[in-house]
From TrEMBL:
The chain crosses the membrane at residues 6-29, 289-309, 315-332, 344-365. This is Glycosyl transferase. GO terms for biological process: glucosylceramide biosynthetic process. PANTHER family: CERAMIDE GLUCOSYLTRANSFERASE. GO terms for molecular function: ceramide glucosyltransferase activity. Signal peptide: none annotated. Gene3D superfamilies: Spore Coat Polysaccharide Biosynthesis Protein SpsA, Chain A. It is found in: Membrane. It comes from Acidithiobacillus thiooxidans ATCC 19377. Keywords: Glycosyltransferase, Membrane, Transferase, Transmembrane, Transmembrane helix. The lineage of its organism: Bacteria, Pseudomonadati, Pseudomonadota, Acidithiobacillia, Acidithiobacillales. Pathway: Sphingolipid metabolism; Lipid metabolism; sphingolipid metabolism. GO terms for cellular component: membrane. It comes from the Bacteria.
Length: 391
């Protein structure tokens, strides 16, 4: 076999693998039964008397206009004993006014905000959490990002696996809800059609290693056993390492079937690209081999890239894989929209696919990420190395 024939065979093999991934993702989604925020009252595993007290930690930074709605969903929990502690690192942060408004609206809820200038490392979220943690009163902790919306039974649903002694960290996936900007629809499509299914596929094939900031619930004793927040202070992927270090203690990272909502606000293509690149670069920092082979999770653009070579070497037979993966992608779009109750446009979803493959490639070489208005250098082992304040 000549060199050109070998390359042609490799192209067909990669296209076949991409088709196989698409079929696997479709099957995993077909058997998955997610609990969405608008359907979370259908199953309650515990009575009120069974539920332990819980501290809900909310690191805040600014207000994109939706912070009130996001935080309010956590104030409406059908849960008897929980406190909500919000953290800011600047007294002039507009998030403070939002929390104060909610304090007036929900006077019976133990809701307070903490101003802290603690500096454990380069990760601004971990620094913020350090101030919050010191003010928490309960041993059961739940950390959740500021842009998350949940249903009233959210806390209730999470308790069954969390009360298992073998559970290290309990986490949730999230559904992207975009605003009117097209860039927001692109990012939401990447979340719903690419990121979420890839995590479900990975969890189906082996022990779950995903741990995301949308929900991270754990015992205070577990956090102490991994070295506290100090052990995460310089990590870009602080959420991943929280789960990974708990697994080093022999405790599992549990992926709940509860799917929270995240409000996606990307006013420009630049902010979309920076956000998506940071996510991809974060994955590369913690799973370099897995990130490298994740191009298979972009079947349509991957096969489209391979098609000219396959057409040149095999004629019209080389177009067949593209037709097959395009047909599967159309069916898959309808499937994921139905499963998540989402309304992503097909055009945005297909464009997000192609941009996703390019961003994956860019992340192979990226050395800096944009986060919270600053640029951070990322070392080879995934640690943040200072910032220069430039967006």
């Amino acid at each position: 076999m000549g060199f050109e024939e070998g390359l042609l065979g490799l192209a067909f093999l990669l296209a076949l693998a991409a088709l196989g991934y698409q079929l696997l993702a479709m099957w995993v989604l077909r058997v998955w039964q997610p609990v969405l925020t608008n359907t979370d009252a259908t199953f309650l595993p515990h009575t009120i008397q069974d539920l332990p007290a819980l501290s809900l930690l909310k690191p805040l930074h600014g207000d994109d206009g939706n912070l009130y709605a996001c935080l309010r969903s956590f104030c409406l929990q059908d849960y008897p004993r929980y406190e909500m502690v919000c953290g800011v690192q600047d007294a002039a942060d507009p998030a403070v006014a939002v929390v104060q408004r909610l304090q007036q609206e929900f006077p019976a809820l133990p809701l307070r905000w903490i101003l802290s200038d603690k500096l454990l490392g380069c990760n601004p979220k971990v620094n913020n959490l350090a101030g919050i943690l010191a003010a928490c009163n309960h041993d059961l902790l739940l950390i959740s990002d500021a842009d998350i919306v949940v249903g009233p039974q959210y806390l209730h649903h999470l308790l069954t696996p969390l009360m298992d002694s073998q559970t290290g960290v309990l986490t949730c996936l999230y559904r992207g809800l975009p605003d009117h900007h097209f860039s927001s629809r692109l990012l939401a499509s990447q979340i719903n059609s690419l990121f979420l299914p890839s995590v479900r596929v990975s969890a189906h094939l082996g022990p779950n290693i995903f741990c995301g900031g949308a929900t991270m619930a754990l015992q205070c004793s577990t956090l102490e056993a991994i070295g506290g927040l100090e052990s995460l202070a310089d990590q870009l992927a602080d959420d991943y390492w929280l789960g990974a270090r708990a697994r080093q203690l022999g405790k599992a990272t549990i992926l709940s079937d509860y799917v929270v909502d995240t409000q996606v606000h990307e006013a420009s293509f630049r902010t979309f690209y920076q956000h998506a690149l940071r996510w991809s670069r974060t994955t590369r920092s913690v799973q370099p081999l897995g990130h490298f082979f994740s191009f298979f999770s972009y079947p349509l653009p991957l096969v489209a890239v391979l098609t000219p070579w396959m057409f040149w070497g095999a004629g019209y037979w080389g177009i067949i894989p593209l037709g097959m993966v395009l047909l599967l992608r159309l069916v898959y779009h309808r499937q994921i929209m139905h499963k998540l109750g989402a309304t992503d446009s097909l055009g945005a979803a297909l464009l997000a696919d192609f941009l996703g493959l390019w961003i994956w490639f860019h992340a192979l070489f990226a050395r800096r990420v944009a986060w919270r208005g600053s640029q951070y250098a990322v070392t080879a082992d995934g640690r943040l190395n200072g910032h220069d304040g430039v967006t």
